[in-house]
Amino acid sequence: MATSFFSVLINGQIESGHFASYDNIYLKFSFVHGPDWAVVAGVEEGITQQSLSNLFFSRGDPRKAGCVWNFPIDLAFKSTNAYGWPQMLMTVYGPDLLGRDVVRGYGVVRVPRVPGIHTLEVPMFVPLASTTLNGFLSWASGRLPEFRDVRFIAGNEGREVTTVRSQGIVKVTLNVGTKDMERFGYVVRSLTGK
Predict the structure, then answer these.
(1) pLDDT (tens digit, 9 = 90+) per residue, 121-131?
(2) Judging by DSSP bridges, how do beta strands 67-79 and 38-42 pair with one another?
(3) Distance (Å, rounded) from C-alpha 77 to C-alpha 159?
(4) Tens digits of per-residue pLDDT, 48-100?
(5) What sign does the dihedral 78-149-20-130 (CA atoms) show?
(6) How far apart are CA 23 and CA 99, in angstroms?
(7) For residues 154, 138, 100 and 109, what is the CA-based torsion angle, rounded to 10 degrees?
(8) How far apart, in Å, do the first and last CA atoms of the chain sit?
(9) Can you tell me whether residue 9 is helix, strand or coil?
């Protein structure tokens, strides 16, 4: 009996984050996908524990220090169409000088389409104020610019007018498996090319 859908299986972990001047940070993640996709097992969104920087193990060099989460990811999708391939959205938070949680970085990565183990370094960014005055007011009030809906970073609409600054890297390891994609006409090759 032929299946009426194909499957994409994802497991792995959110390993670490490297933010040179920030500490005691945590990460919220979620997966977004197209309308033909459905989650059949696992959790689509989550939040890691807070992590202090391992400055001691970086031999005092803050550029090499990172926060380690090792947070597990385990998820299975089914679909009939590759349009809207899953993407993982990440938002890193940390305390400001007054102890309020503020955004320290946004990032998005498309789940690799090739089966196998993938180690990804996701560049993070933060939005900047639209004017110098707004930048000063946000700094003075402690309310830094942030997106109303984090799903905005996964799309194209409105991104061309958004000014951002690079800020940190998050390391993610994903083990991707697929099933029955060939029946729908998709060519799937492993990392070895076979």
Answers:
(1) 999 998 887 77
(2) antiparallel
(3) 27
(4) 999 887 665 555 555 556 889 999 999 999 999 899 999 999 999 988 888 88
(5) positive
(6) 12
(7) 10
(8) 26
(9) strand
